[in-house]
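Q: Could you fold this chain for me?
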Amino acid sequence: MNQILTSHHDFIQGLPKAELHLHIEGSLEPEIMFQLAKLQEVNLPFQASRG
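A: Sure. Below is the predicted structure, expressed as structure tokens.
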């Protein structure tokens, strides 16, 4: 690689990475989901998580 491509590659490799595809139900604890639903006045088809 030439110097410009190498520096661009190094720059891109050093950038912070982000999640591009994420299912929200797999990333929230059930208790937080219930709290958020209550805060936003969203009626859920169930009342509480089973513990």
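A (continued): The chain has a mean pLDDT of 84.
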